[in-house]
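Reopening this one. Same input as before:
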Amino acid sequence: MDFATLAGLIIGVGVVLASILYESNIWIYLHLPAFLIVVGGTFASTMIKFPLSGFFLAIPIGLKAAFTNEKEKPRDFINEAVKLCKLARKSGMLSLESAKIKNQFFKKGIQMCVDGRDLDYIRKVLTQEMALSIQREEIGARVFQSIGDAAPAFGMVGTLVGLVQLLSNMKDPSAIGQSMSIAMLTTLYGVFIAYMIALPIADKLEAKSQQERANRALIIECVFQIQQKQNPTAMLEILEPFLPEKQRVPWAKNSWTVEPGKGPDKGHDKG
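Same output, byte for byte:
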């Protein structure tokens, strides 16, 4: 669970509701025609802009990005890769077939190593899968960005509709309030949907897409090093630059593994 998203929604909705309830009744802010203008128009505009497959794929991708966090960190991939490389050097590549690997992308790469695929084939398959995965996430971000752009615009459409109704019913005082409520509430709904939901999800999806790209690039390099049965010390030297500067650990050349927050093992590489 991404608690930042949950906390942001609770605080944002809570502040708005508290402000409403402090001075008035919440029911006067609920208006179905105004809601339909904003939501219906926003989704219609977005569906025109994107193919249906991309539109319906973006919703679950966006919600998943907003409310879930990746449990595995780049350091975890490096440590796991070093252990697998050590096992491959000691017992052969086939010994990796029984290794328990949680990350499916990493697992697929190791399976290709076990199957005896060459580096060019592994690179092509993993790079293509990474590109397609990132493309889906980018489409998801664009869909939510489009929703965020369209919602305030249709809020303004609702405002204009309300003003037209207001001006056409100036002789009927009872209709003025109804027309004004549509004019004001559509703007409120549009801004709330855009800046509390759609645009934050779009930004979070883009940020997580960039992180996923970096993680998969690291995994691909891990798989390459394992396939070549690289010396674990040299492997660490190659993989450490994938980490942010502050997360890199200075260590001696004769270390096998580096645990998070710890120094290197002092054992010498016998391979």
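So the earlier flakiness isn't reproducible anymore. For the record, The radius of gyration is 27 Å.
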